[in-house]
Amino acid sequence: MIHKHHSTDGTDENALSNATPHQKAMQALVEIMSQDQNIDYKQSIRFALSLASAYLEMPVGVTCQIDGENYVIETYYLDEAAMLPEYVVEERLINSVNNSPYAMLMASTSVVAVDEFSNHPETKTFLGQYQMYAAFIGTQLSLNEQCVGGLIFFDQASRLQPFTSIEKEFVQMLGQWMQKMMHQNQLDEQLSMSNERITLALSGGNLGLWDVDLTNKNVVLNDRWSQMLGYKQKELTHRLSVWKRLIHPEDLQAAYAAFKSLVKGEADEVDHVFKMQHKDGHWVWVHNRGKVVARDFHGMPTRMMGTHMDVSALRNAEEEVKQLAFYDVLTALPNRRLLLDRLKLALVQSGRNKTHGALIFIDLDDFKTLNETLGHEQGDVLLKNVAERLSKCLRDGDTVARFGGDEFVVMLDNLEAKSEVATTQVEKVGDKIIESLNQPYQLNGIEHHSSPTLGATLFNGTTDKIEDTLQKADIAMYQAKNAGKNCLRFFDQSIQSNLINKTKLAEDLRVAIEAEQFVLFYQPQVNRNGEISGAEALVRWIHPTRGMVSPLDFIPLAEETGLITDLGSWVMEAGCKQLVEWEKDPKTASQDLSVNVSARQFQQPDFVNQVVATIHKTGANPKKLKLELTESMLVDDVDDVISKMSQLRVYGVRFSLDDFGTGVSSLRYLKLFPLTQLKIDKSFVDDILTDTNDAVIARTIVALANSLGLNVIAEGVEIEGQRDFLAQNGCHDYQGYLFSRPLKIEDYNTLCSEYDPPELTDDDALKNMMLL
Ligand code: C2E
Ligand code: CA
Ligand code: CA
Known about the structure:
Elements lengths: L11 H7 L2 H13 L7 H16 L3 E8 L2 E9 L8 E8 L6 H6 L5 E3 L20 E9 L2 E10 L9 H38 L5 E6 L4 E4 L1 H6 L12 H6 L2 H15 L5 E9 L5 E13 L5 E10 L1 H15 L9 H18 L2 E9 L2 H8 L1 H18 L5 E6 L2 E9 L3 H20 L2 E3 L2 E3 L3 E8 L6 H17 L5 E3 L2 H20 L5 E9 L5 E12 L3 E3 L1 H11 L2 H20 L8 E5 L2 H5 L3 H12 L6 E6 L1 H4 L2 H14 L2 E7 L6 H4 L6 E4 L1 H5 L5 H17 L2 E5 L4 H9 L4 E3 L9 H10 L7 H10 L1
Parallel strand pairs: 17-18, 20-22, 22-23, 23-24, 24-25, 25-26, 26-27
Antiparallel strand pairs: 1-2, 1-6, 2-3, 4-5, 5-6, 7-8, 7-11, 9-10, 10-11, 12-14, 12-17, 13-14, 15-16, 19-20, 19-27, 20-21
Helix pairs in contact: 2-3, 2-5, 3-5, 11-12, 12-13, 15-16, 17-19, 19-21
């Protein structure tokens, strides 16, 4: 044991200056060893080095630690310029101990002292940094009987006197003290490490543990770590490189960066997820957490520990949720939500880069029919094929999404800033898509054909919004459908204006009936003698701000919105009331009234009842009521149509087939329906004098009507020539501007009361006679 020396003089300084060399050495050691217990290991080593080098009057004091083949050295030297017993720390890493004082220490268990480098067989060959030294004294440091480093003091000047035995003993005792400190420190570290280990183990169940010794890159892994990846412990290399080998290449860089910032001291912990390859090849999602648990004198990490947790189940569930939320199940394409997300981004980007993007809506023509005739399974196969083909038509940055049903949407990004150029770019893609989707499909081993219709719009983030962009592409697609399908159309502003107009009109239409904005006009029908035999009721909408709106503009709209049923009943009732009025006046008592019936109106299950109820309610004579149907109405559910017509025929209601010749009805079926009249469409009458084709059609219709025992009337008769031609070919009932335009009821009644049938010329009379 070393005891503190008590000086006989008043001060320690005086005591030291008078002390024997032995006493001075003891004094220095006591000071070193009695230092504050609370300062940390590193500080305490530094303090010891500075006191010791002062005592030895050797300006450089070093402790080094062996680190594999490298030495981390810490050098203390006396700052002579400051003339203070302060020591400056200089840290260096040297790569090899060969041919250095350290090698001499390693080789000897006792203190090594060299008074003069040039006189010593080993040191005289020293090179580099050691050439600046002239003397050294040092000892190895060992722990558990293993050399772990050294303690060494240098001097640039050679010794005036050889190292004394007291000095050698001092170095030896200081070395022993340092070994004890190192040992203590190691125990402390291990204790804190096992605390860390417990903490980590508790922080998650079923954890793989890892423990990296950074000084030699060796790794300790527990069984669970290896099992997680399907390995036995001995099948894995227990080196740091085990991660590099097993982490997915995609994740490697990020994982490496995280480790690196830990090692560099930029982060306290790693906490990240990466994929590692299981022995059987599949990828395991690993949640890795770890921290530095030991550092060297300089604060550099020497040891890290952490845990692996298998989070594959969680990740897969997350992926699945993501897949469900953002991808279409059938085609695995992005769904509407994801496309909207990307569109939002693309809008921002195009605004920033002053470029264009484009949206293309794609609808498969007649997909519904295919789906119904072939079955949904084959429909699904077709959709998958379409998805694949679409993906092939696009570049990497583009998105193709499925919006549902047979609707696909393509988003093109980063198109030219000039809209003409961008348009051409979109057209090229559109052509490619059309060509690809037009190729036959193999469904159930049978070749099938399908074709797409495309609507496109350009967008740029400075002016466009998401909703508008979508709507524009949608409108363009409908426009393309109207243009005959299987083509691409760009959004056109005027079309949109029409659409807005239409929406507004539809709103107005809803209130028009209640607001009594409808009136019936009457257009006379004239027979072979030029007498007015009746009229066609034609509805007019007196719009509060637009004035008179043509039925051509609002009847289709009423059909679309379903308002036609209310409007139709109103027309029916107004017409029947008029019939009752006419009966009161002998001049009009014999008049018929033709009322137009629209498809949707006729298709109502209780249509017959409605008409009968109206007849009863108004007291109209059903024999004077003629309902005008169109050919297309006869095609669907033939039995139902015949049944309805027959029921009404029982009451005496008659039926005229409007716009005849323009439709698709097979003439063979015509006789199935209890019709009374065919109405030659105006389009044939128009050119009846100039177009032989139309003339032939008109003549055929008359012949057909005759063969079926039906009456025939021509509409749109504007000039006498037309009337004459029709008469010569056997059509003797007419309606048209030649006789009168549709009139307000007052005007119509006036016309009837004043109407003078045109005088028939002898010629006409003769012709009529011959045709009878
Ligand atoms: P439509 O049933 O074919 O009616 C004949 C149309 O031709 C009427 O047009 C009539 O004004 C017009 N017209 C008659 N003669 C001539 C002529 O010599 N020259 C020319 N240029 N045109 C002539 P309007 O009144 O505009 O009616 C258009 C269509 O609206 C009708 O075609 C009909 O399909 C529908 N419609 C009219 N009123 C009703 C109704 O009350 N109910 C239903 N469901 N549809 C109606
Ligand atoms: Ca009509
Ligand atoms: Ca017509």
